[in-house]
UniProtKB/TrEMBL annotation:
Entry keyword annotation includes Transport: yes
Protein name: ABC transporter ATP-binding protein
InterPro entries named in the record: AAA+_ATPase, ABC_transporter-like_ATP-bd, ABC_transporter-like_CS, ABC_transporter_ATP-binding, P-loop_NTPase
Domain of life: Bacteria
Keywords associated with the record: ATP-binding, Nucleotide-binding, Transport
A matching Pfam family: ABC_tran
GO MF annotation: an example: ATP hydrolysis activity
Organism expressing this protein natively: Fulvimarina pelagi HTCC2506
């Protein structure tokens, strides 16, 4: 079966969720995720991220729509579907006095999998935990404890791994360490779905990005394509002396004159056939506008995300 026709590892079809009291947490969500993909789900608090994960993992009741994991329906084939999923929660919920080896082995048993030391060894080695296998969890650093949570989620050899805010409340060094862990997981064929508030996390790791706001999936896009479509560059021309007004022959350019009149900012599409920069610089020179520096800035994914959520409000 070709890569383009293979069935998705996760399929979400027309899923809605209404809680008692009438609050609609999700509204007609459709999403497919392919095997081996790293998918980031972005959204503000209360947007519906946790509700969606809870429905997929069987932690909340699915009433409207259909969800399948590797072809297994989460309602009619709950145990088969759930067995395909590993879930890493935000909280460090571990038995402080248990060893790393025992706690990971126990998690495998919860899914009805037979004991298999070779699997546990492989998982621990992949997360640089094997040397700590006999350590009590209470002796581990915060970063190691988070790795143990991932090891527990991988112990039953799932196809899909959910990371719910994997680096919430951790320092920058540990955050980057976790990014490396996720990148390594991709090499093993595990599909990774993460929710995050850290825009740079999605920008660094994800292949595709979904933006959810007020229960609606307002956009799903390839990360690079999203940057291409919605991103733009700004060219700031720092002037040698104040400019009283933008010359008439430049009125068709998207130019902004700074309040101190010492710089011009030009917004342009980097993927357009022509950016117009060469002509702009020539026209400035013809008008006798002299400059001392040129600075370019590309819009970040964070700016794009904020704009999308604001548009959806």
């Amino acid at each position: 079966m070709s890569e383009t026709t293979q069935k998705p590892i996760l399929s979400i079809e027309n899923v809605s969720k209404t809680y008692e009291g009438g609050y609609k947490a999700l509204k007609n969500v459709d999403l497919t995720i392919q095997k081996g993909e790293i998918f980031a789900l972005l959204g503000p608090n209360g947007a519906g991220k946790t509700t969606l994960i809870s429905l997929i993992c069987g932690l909340a009741r699915l009433n409207e729509g259909r969800i399948t994991v590797d072809g297994h329906d989460v309602k009619s084939e709950f145990y088969k579907a759930r067995g395909k999923i590993g879930l890493v929660p935000q909280e460090l919920t571990t038995d402080a006095f248990e060893s790393v080896w025992n706690t990971v082995s126990f998690s495998r048993g919860l899914f009805g999998k037979p004991k298999d030391p070779t699997v546990i060894e492989r998982v621990l080695k992949s997360l640089a935990l094997y040397e700590k296998r006999d350590n009590k969890l209470r002796t581990l650093s915060g970063g190691m404890k988070r790795r143990v949570l991932i090891a527990k989620a991988l112990a039953h050899e799932p196809e899909v791994l959910f990371l719910d805010e994997p680096t919430a409340g951790v320092d920058v060094a540990l955050r980057r360490e976790m990014w490396n862990v996720v990148a390594d997981l991709r090499q093993t064929g595990v599909t990774v779905i993460l929710t995050t508030h850290y825009i740079e996390e999605a920008e660094m790791m994800a292949d595709r990005i979904g933006v959810i706001s007020k229960g609606e999936l307002i956009l799903v896009e390839d990360k690079n394509e999203l940057m291409r479509k919605l991103g733009h560059k700004e060219l700031t021309i720092v002037l040698q002396e104040p400019l009283q007004a933008i010359p008439d022959n430049l009125s068709h350019y998207d130019l902004q004159l700074a309040e101190d009149r010492m710089s011009l900012t030009y917004s342009y599409d980097t993927h357009a056939e022509r950016t117009g920069i060469a002509t702009l610089m020539r026209l400035l020179a013809e008008d006798g506008v002299r400059f001392r520096d040129i600075v370019t800035k590309q819009s970040s994914l964070e700016e794009i995300f904020v704009g999308l959520v604001e548009d959806g409000q």
